[in-house]
Amino acid sequence: MEQYIIKGGIPLHGDVEIGGAKNAALAILAAANMTNETVYIDNLPDVRDINALLEAMEGIGTRIERVGRHAVKVNGSSVENFIVESESMKKIRASYYLLGALLGKYKKAQVPLPGGCNIGSRPIDQHLKGFKAMGARTKVEHGFVIAEAETLHGAHIFLDMVSVGATINIMMAAVMAEGSTTIENAAKEPHVVDVANFLNSMGASIKGAGTDVIRIKGVRALHRTEYSIIPDQIEAGTFMFAAAVTGGDIVLHNVIPKHLEATSSKLMELGCRIHEYDDAIQVVAPAKLQGTHVKTMPYPGFPTDMQPQMAVSLAIADGTSIVTESIFENRFRYVDELARMGASVKVEGNVAVISGVERFTGARVSAPDLRAGAALVIAGLAAEGITIVDDIYYIERGYENLDQKFQGLGAKIEKVASEKEIQKFRLKVG
Ligand code: UD1
User: Fold this and answer.
1) Whose CA is nearest to atom 33 of ligand 1?
2) Does ligand 1 have an atom closer than 6 angstroms to the CB of 167?
3) pTM for the model
């Protein structure tokens, strides 16, 4: 079992390169199966979730050719099995994107009921509602979701809640359906737009992605394309908060500042200065962070995936702050871990009341999920003394070389795998 060990208290300085968006890449890779021609995708992050999906795709017969670390050629013409059966698939929520992609192309799909981060109940009823409206039959049997149809037809679908996954999945199922589909109350996240742009570059006809009404006209077939995935706004935001909590000054490259507006505006409320460039953003932390309030909302609101990183910043800010989580009910599981580092947080339902403390003190903590794990790492970067973060498996699902990127900004952080290596690090950093 690997851990991150961190000697905190060093302000981050310098430049960091942000990778491609994991959540966009998961959907785009699944969608790449929808043509029989070869699709080239780059700016792909090299993280566990992506590799698990690629492995599952190979399992159904997709031909995958790696072109370096961040690019891949995908050919879905040899898919001969619509049953996705892979142990690793159960661990990632986005396995459900193969449902929309295979149903859309072959009118048949069987995918393990999705797992993913334990951040609350994560039903897929809205995905299934969309598929059914297009003429599919769906059922859950022996741990699998099964969807099939003789033909798929266009439909008018009103989502009961804003769901990124349902919006993308229904969009994929609809691109080759007969007639037109409208998705109302659609999610507006940048990766919804990225997937729509990708599908359009393969010949789909999708209009309105990025607004709450998406209209899709079914086409007969999709064709080859070359596509570069958008930068990861959550990875970027994580580094921005890391700069804030350590009193640092960093420049992030390969970002789209527009996608980061909700995060940037909260960082400004915390007292940071933000400078936006075409594809870069600079964060300069104040001497002391100021407390504020935040509520997670679908895009363009403050992202739930940034909530733990924001809360870590508020935990060492002046005053009392309130964090309201309105997307996932179980997203405060890191609070007990943060308390071990000296934070003072009271959780009541979906609200956390945070009384800022002067500083964190290093402790041994466990990552409860992907984003909360990253938040504990940034708390460790700010803490006095040594922090060890266990269960970094979760963090590596969505962050590529997190330790090396922080090292590049001057942090003392290493990935270790034994008590001996932990002792060695302690001796080295003094
Ligand atoms: C995606 C992201 C995740 C992010 C989340 C919200 C991926 C792989 N994951 O997850 O990192 O935290 O968006 O931005 O892209 N819901 C239902 N029924 C459904 C679908 C969703 O009740 O059929 C509820 C969920 O329980 C949740 C809310 O809707 O409360 C939003 O979920 P959704 O946007 O679907 O999240 P994911 O697509 O799972």
Assistant:
1) 163
2) no
3) 0.96
